[in-house]
Amino acid sequence: MNSKAANNVATGVIYLLVTAVVGILVFLLGYILVTGIPHVSMHFLTSAAQSFKAGGGIRDQLFNSLYLLVLTLIISFPIALGSGIYLSEYAPNNWFTSLIRTAIEVLSSLPSVVVGLFGYLVFVIKFDVGFSILAGAIALTFFNLPLLTRSIEESLEDVPDLQREAGLSLGLSRWKTITGIVFPAALPGILTGIILSAGRVFGEAAALIYTAGQSAPIVSYSNWNPFSPTSFLNPMRPAETLAVHIWKVNTEGVTPDALQISSGASAVLIVVILLFNLGARYLGNWMFKKMTAAK
User: What pLDDT, in 10s, does the model give residues 93-135?
Assistant: First the structure.
């Protein structure tokens, strides 16, 4: 076989594999959306879940997922930002830096159920936090930190060194150069990483089963006092998220319309994650054009 024929065969195999992967992805997404969207309605999105009768919704589970996501980002983003800046701008190329990067890679490869068990043993039991939104957010912080740190570090490293040199040549300090020149230039990539990690956190279930709990107590959405046990803003209450709810209704088998609820909830989960990913692409492109005057 000559080189031209070998190239055509290899190209054909690559296209075949890509088509197979895209086809499987489209089939899965299409199946979830086609079977789930008909069960999604305003009543479904705004009513409370039911345990032993049909007609329940996902109002509390959807809110719990969003609340847990916001709390996780509030905890994890400052840590990831500081780590990313250190690794990109200050860390010397030695064994200690290599050890930090290795630890980040190991942490990113941990199964989410292991992170959940760690959170259960340490925060739920050892520190007596109990099944709560706070325990779930701390567990998801360990789950989210590696991806977010690497995303911030790579976004900062993508900024050309000429911009750093220009800032230093003007007499700016190293920290002022980072905060005034490098960070704004890397902001589109950083925001993209935040939104992508948010989609990953939003769909997590295994880690939350052991930390946030599997129950959704009735809370008052008119009570804005975060220290009140009945307040929807109370971070110490147990909270069943949307992904956990999908797993729960399919395993318990006590809800008459469990199939319809899980199908509708799965469709909502997929749509929200797709919006996160599309939003990351759009926001990143918009900020890149805004800050670089690119067309």
Answer: 888 888 888 888 888 888 888 888 999 999 999 888 889 999 9
CA atoms of 25 and 16, how far apart (whole Å): 14
In a domain, residue 273? The reply is: yes
Structural domain total, the chain: 1
C-alpha–C-alpha distance, residues 220 and 269, integer Å: 24
Residue 99 placed within a domain: yes
> What is the Cα gyration radius of the chain?
23
**Tokens (6 digits) for 164:** 């750093």
Q: pTM for this structure? A: 0.87
CATH number, domain with residue 129: 1.10.3720.10
34 in any annotated domain: no
Please report whether residue 7 resides in a domain: no
DSSP 182: I
The answer to whether 214 and 235 are in contact (CB under 8 A) is no
What's the rounded Cα separation, in Å, for the pair 5 and 289?
42
Domain with 181 in it: 40-292
- Three-state secondary structure string covering 102-136: HHHHHHHCCCHHHHHHHHHHHHHHHCCCCCCHHHH
| CA dist., res. 15 & res. 96, Å (int) | 43
Cβ–Cβ < 8 Å for 154, 85: no
Contact 146, 108 (CB under 8 A): yes
Instruction: Tell whether the torsion through CA atoms of 99, 206, 140 and 150 is positive or negative.
Output: positive
Cα–Cα distance for residue pair 58/44, rounded to 1 Å: 6
Please, which residues have CB within 8 angstroms of residue 228's CB and are 6 or more apart in sequence? Answer: 220, 234
Say how far residue 181 (Cα) sits from the centre of its chain. Answer: 28
